[in-house]
Amino acid sequence: MSARKTAKSRPRQRPDGRKARIVARLLPILALCAWVVTLWVPVLDSSLNSLHTKESTRIVVTSLGDVPRDLSDLDPKFVIIWSCLLACVISAWLVDRLRIWAWATVCLGVAVLALLINLMAEPPTLMWDGQDSSGRWIGGMEVASPVWGAALWAVGGLALIAAGICGLIGERQRSSERIRQDARSRLVARQHRTLADGAARLLPLMSLASWIVMIWVPIMDNQATDEEGVTLTSLGLNTTGLVDMSPGVLFAWTFVILSAAVGLSMDPPTWWSAIVVAFGVSLYFMLYGILAYPPTVRWRGETASGESISANIVGFPAAGVSFWALGSITLIVAGISGLIAQRQRRRLFR
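Predicted structure:
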């Protein structure tokens, strides 16, 4: 009887939300894997449509949009979603409080599904004409139809929405005592913030500002002719839009934005500051590569007498090089300051 009473008198353990938070962090990886697979597995394909013939051009849509001939043909909508998805996967393991992250992830999942529905409702089409072997004119229309990649796309969108919901549930299930302890720890940390801590948080903003300035201030520039020149900005070569972003530029933008957001919104883990230093150094190597192998454009024209002439137009360093170097230095200093601040914080709580 006493054993039963003892068993009944035990306090019921409340869920602390750990499982839900782990699931919330893992589901975006599933969404990313689905999008990686759809680089090769088409989302829409006109070859399965009844209007398709051997003579017509095939339309294939992947997670990069219409299959591009080169990187300058990338659809900006898909580039933005790829950037947001990568930022979502990385930030899930950096953020301690998942509430804001969870809402942003739900919005991203809804946007991914909305884009898929829009593609299926208004699929890409192509009117074509040509000649057969007998010389007769032929023609028709290509319409892209959903294939297996569309199901993977939908799985990715639903995984993002589920990740956001699990994040919200996990935050709600965290015990009030744990929240009070975290609040006390954060209050003590804020009261004892040092110069190094402030530099680690604010300097990535200066790096982000430098990259924004380089949208209009060229890194490499040479307007040798009135018709064509070489202009390299932080958005890519000869561009003022997102469509010409190379993978390197896209990676740099993603990490610069992520560094600024992490520095302002949370206390990052110990290894994050070391990654910021490594990224700042890698930006220097990128700049060295650009300066060592400057972008070139082949120019062709005619003289007054009608003679054909051609030349290689080479980009030369412009004012943007200084802003690039400034952005790299600030990230390196921010990472070192973060390591110093973490060491000071450990001494404080020792």
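Summary: The chain has two domains: 14-174, 196-350.
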